[in-house]
Specification:
The chain is 50% helix and 20% strand. By secondary structure, the protein is of the alpha/beta class. The termini are far apart.
């Protein structure tokens, strides 16, 4: 009787131990299993520390799928992911799940970067096939981060942190990316974090500025409005390009705070301009996925006292495509309040003509990639001519971006393009310099009518 009790106790302890090391949903090992496996391999190789790799995979866009189809469908996808990973990892490798949509693996026979990238490419391919949810198929992609022992860390915690850093960089670069940790990547991520902190502080301290670039009527070269552009000069970092800090704010989740500050400053400046001039302002892709964007934008205009009919919001096709239904709702709400919507960087997206059919825009901005080649490239000239003719048929205004010299301006006028902007007409300048520009060069509507 006693030995039977001991036997039952032993069995239950074994079961408890197995449960503590197992992910209950997928049956894979969990973080403890991963930790023990890494420590075991490191101990075996103590005398001769041969490299091995660990990797982390994170599903791209899993949360929206989970929200859309429900947690049961989400669990089913996670189980299918686990089954695929287990079926295709190399012999001797271990795959685990950390919870959520994150999986990890230990790869004892992967010794260097190229080997890790090759495994990542294979796993990415395996996970790109559709997942079967019975009445529907769902497609996902995955991002990967790898770390090689002992170069990326000699203990489990350090190694996992390095793999996580590599994964984070993959996520920054877009969907389906593969990154293997290196010192250069670590430095890059450290710089990005320092930049993030400096930018957050600058927003709080009201140190991010707005400059304005004139948009002119090509018919008579008169100013019709200004595009607001973000500018930031940090005491320690010096001038930081908006091409660097705007995507960073979007990526790290505080683009709303940055955009609200910039729109408020731009709208306040526009109050001092002649009332017929419009303010053009860029919306980010993150804002076109946020249902509160229209309300927030109109609230800022209301607080400042700027007529919504003087605001023009520029959105890119790429931003629209991220979540078309939400973007369409936001655009509809803004246009109902009198705000005009401009499609920016036209001609560089994947299905611009479809967007013009599906969305209601007021204006199209021809990308500078075509404008810069108009004088010596027949194809660019024909593309611009076709865009202008099409917009005329659709009753859309047209702006050519990036006009650098007189010959480009002349050619665009000849092709019937209505508006333009670029260094030829004026570089971006702060609010004070913009007022000087208007005082020197602007003739009011009344003045133009009188001289006509």
């Amino acid at each position: 009787m006693k030995s039977a009790d001991h036997s039952a106790l032993d069995v239950s302890q074994t079961d408890l131990h197995a449960m503590a090391y197992t992910d209950p949903l997928t049956g894979l090992g969990n973080l403890y299993r991963l930790r023990d496996k890494v420590r075991q391999i490191a101990k075996e190789r103590e005398e001769d520390p041969a490299p091995f790799a660990i990797g982390i995979a994170n599903l791209d866009g899993f949360k929206p799928i989970n929200d859309l189809f429900g947690p049961r469908a989400g669990d089913e996808i996670l189980c299918q992911v686990a089954h695929r990973l287990k079926a295709c990892i190399p012999d001797g490798a271990t795959v685990t799940r950390h919870g959520g949509d994150e999986f990890a693996f230990v790869l004892p026979l992967v010794f260097e970067r190229k080997g890790a990238e090759k495994i990542g490419q294979m796993l990415r391919e395996v996970l790109s096939a559709p997942f079967d949810l019975g009445d529907r198929n769902v497609r996902l992609s995955a991002s990967f981060g790898f770390a090689i022992y002992p170069f990326a860390g000699e203990d489990f915690t350090e190694l996992l942190k390095s793999a996580d850093t590599a994964l984070y960089r993959s996520k920054r670069r877009g969907r389906g990316q593969i990154t293997v940790y290196s010192q250069e990547i670590a430095q890059e991520m450290k710089r990005a974090t320092q930049l993030e902190q400096a930018l957050r502080n600058a927003i709080i301290a009201n140190e991010v500025d707005v400059h304005f670039q004139p948009i002119v009527s090509l018919r008579d070269d008169t100013v019709v409005g200004f595009e607001a552009l973000a500018r930031w000069c940090d005491a320690d970092l010096g001038y930081v390009s908006p091409a660097l800090f705007v995507p960073l704010a979007e990526e790290r989740g505080f683009i709303d705070a940055l955009s609200d500050t910039l729109l408020r400053k731009a709208a306040e400046a526009a109050l001092s301009w002649p009332k017929e001039l419009f303010l053009s302002f860029n919306l980010s892709s993150a804002q076109l996925m946020d249902p509160k964007t229209a309300f927030n934008t109109l609230a800022i205009l209301n607080r400042v006292g700027l007529d919504p009919r003087r605001l023009e919001l520029e959105i890119t096709e790429t931003a629209v495509m991220t979540d078309a239904d939400t973007a369409q709702k936001i655009v509809g709400e803004l246009r109902a309040a009198g705000v005009r919507i401009s499609l920016d960087d036209f001609g560089t997206g994947q299905s611009s003509l479809g967007r013009l059919r599906d969305f209601t825009f007021d204006k199209v901005k021809i990308d500078r990639a075509f404008v810069s080649r108009i004088s010596n490239d027949k194809a660019s000239e024909h593309i611009i001519k076709a865009i202008v003719a099409m917009c005329e048929g659709l009753d859309l205004a047209v702006v050519a971006e990036g006009i650098e010299d007189f010959s480009e301006a002349l050619k665009l006028k000849a092709l019937g393009c209505g508006m333009g902007q670029g260094y030829f007409y004026g570089k971006p300048a702060d609010a004070v310099a913009t007022m000087r520009y208007l005082a020197d060069r602007y003739v009011t509507v009344e003045g133009r009518a009188a001289s006509a």
